[in-house]
Design brief:
Rossmann fold; binds magnesium ion; binds adenosine-5'-triphosphate; about 475 residues; about 15% strand; elongated; Helicase, Ruva Protein, domain 3; single chain; alpha/beta
């Protein structure tokens, strides 16, 4: 919150004279005051202004102050609200505090008393945000711990992510479905300076085009036929925090144009509003689509691509980091068996081997679901191979003799290094730290043709340091 918004108070009462009086007194005590004569106006002010506290009369024209208070809290959950009541309505006052009012005051009230209540409420709010900040610090540590990574590939990703998280740059996360894009996005927010401010996630693929614009930018009451109430959009909710635009590859072109303008101008208009709102958000975008190909074919705007593709994070599919499987499987097993109140202690060696052999097209999410299913149906305290992946296609028994397995590995190694060097044998030999002639012999031995690797595109291959 800015210094200005820390002192701005909204007063809602249907008595204009009372509003005039209270405005004068609060302003004399150094507060900024915004007033509203009715509920609708109050909601407009709540959505448009950055407020520290509200004072609401219990008896309003169209409904009672308690339901208005609840609506205010649905928009600004941490806003302290002081309820004003007529003498003798102690029951409603108690109900108001039960439902989340900070406190109540009987009308007519002593002005000094009101000032004292306001100060206490604001102090309370400052403490709450300090507590949230400290919790955030703990969570931040905790959340990176929550990301299981043993493979070099994932460790490099996490190292990169922890370095870019505090920079405030726009992050673009690319990875197949279920690789952990959302988990990483949240961890980036929690490791950034914005951790105490909101994190708002929006799945662009899950919302129909007609609603997406109002979801993102909000609307005023009456902006379109069904707009009975004004609505604070995701961008406004994420103010000073982070917005996660998931599945951005599914965003329709018309909305892409609007998003681009918001990112350029750091301002936007809620639908039906003439007044632009300033917005300060960090953007994290994610997709499992080949967005560069979409740019080429014209289904994703090139200018928007460059604006969001500032710091790329590539999450490798699970089949390319199989070393992570045992650790992930154990991690999910413990977590899920605790949640299901079962005492499953481990996974048998044969079951683990099955997990390692499978290709995981659905990545970590599929692994998590598989373990969940296994824990649910097992009657033993160790998960056996018969309940792991019975329905999935696995290569036939592949525990080969040592010599054969070693040859498989060597051939795979030569293939990978040729892919990386696009079939350049001299470079490949250099990487393998072998003489060119020796490497050439290996290529011949495994019946490989360097020219077959000319066009290979290994975007996830990481060369050794
Ligand atoms: N490295 C990891 N450590 C622990 N849990 C993980 C890891 N990666 C993914 N998960 C878990 O796997 C599940 C899928 O992850 P997430 O939802 O972040 O993937 P996603 O890439 O956003 O998937 P989608 O493209 O389907 O939206 C989640 O339950 C997440 O907590
Ligand atoms: Mg996701």
């Amino acid at each position: 919150m800015t210094a200005q918004s820390l002192k701005k108070i909204l007063v809602v009462d249907d008595d204009a004279n009372f509003l005039k009086l209270i405005r004068m007194r609060l302003e004399l005590s150094g507060y900024d005051v915004v007033t509203a004569l009715n509920e609708e106006d109050a909601i407009v002010k709540i959505t448009q202004e950055s407020l520290a506290l509200s004072i609401v009369d219990l008896r309003l024209v169209h409904r009672d102050g308690i339901s208005l208070m609840e609506e205010i809290h649905s928009i600004s959950p941490y806003m302290p609200i002081i309820i004003l009541t007529a003498h003798g309505s102690i029951e409603s006052a108690v109900e108001a505090t039960k439902k989340g009012a900070y406190n109540f005051m009987n009308k007519p009230f002593d002005h000094e008393q009101l000032l004292l209540q306001i100060e206490k409420a604001l102090e309370n709010r400052r403490l709450m945000s300090e507590v949230k900040r400290l919790e955030g610090l703990l969570k931040d540590k905790y959340d990176f711990k929550n990301i299981v990574a043993r493979s070099d590939k994932m460790r490099k990703v996490l190292d990169w992510v922890s370095r870019v998280a505090p920079t405030d740059s726009t992050i673009f996360i690319f990875g197949e479905s279920g690789t952990g894009k959302e988990l990483i996005a949240k961890a980036i927010h929690l490791a950034s300076e914005r951790r105490d401010n909101p994190y708002v996630a929006l799945n662009c693929a899950a919302i129909p085009e007609t609603l997406l614009e109002s979801e993102l930018f909000g609307h005023e009451k009456g902006a379109f036929t069904d707009a009975r109430k004004s609505h604070k959009g995701m961008f406004a909710q994420a103010h000073q925090g982070t917005i996660f635009l998931d599945e951005i590859g599914d965003m329709p072109l018309a909305i892409q144009a609007k998003l681009l303008r918001v990112l350029q101008e750091k301002q936007f208009h809620p639908l039906g509003s003439a007044k632009p709102l300033d917005v300060d958000v960090r953007v994290i975008a994610a997709t499992n689509k080949d967005i560069e190909a979409m740019v080429k074919e014209g289904s994703f705007r090139e200018d928007l691509f460059y604006r969001i593709h500032v710091v790329p994070v590539n999450l490798p599919p699970l089949r390319e980091r199989k070393e992570d499987i045992p650790l992930l499987a154990e991690y999910f097993l413990l977590d899920i068996s605790r949640r299901m109140r079962k005492d499953v202690k481990g996974i048998s060696a044969m079951a683990m081997q099955k997990l390692m052999l499978y290709d995981w097209p659905g990545n970590v999410r599929e692994l998590e679901n598989t373990i969940e299913h296994a824990v649910a149906i097992t009657r033993d305290d160790v998960i056996g191979q018969e309940i792991i992946l019975p329905a999935k296609n696995l290569p036939a028994e592949t525990l080969k003799p040592y010599k054969e397995a070693l040859e498989d590995f060597k051939r795979g190694y030569v293939v990978r290094i040729l892919e990386f060097t696009k079939g350049n044998v001299s470079k490949a030999a250099q990487h393998a730290e072998k003489y060119r002639a020796d490497f050439h012999n290996l290529v011949k031995k495994y019946h490989l043709k360097p020219e077959d690797f000319k066009n290979s595109d290994k975007r996830n291959f990481m060369p050794p340091e």
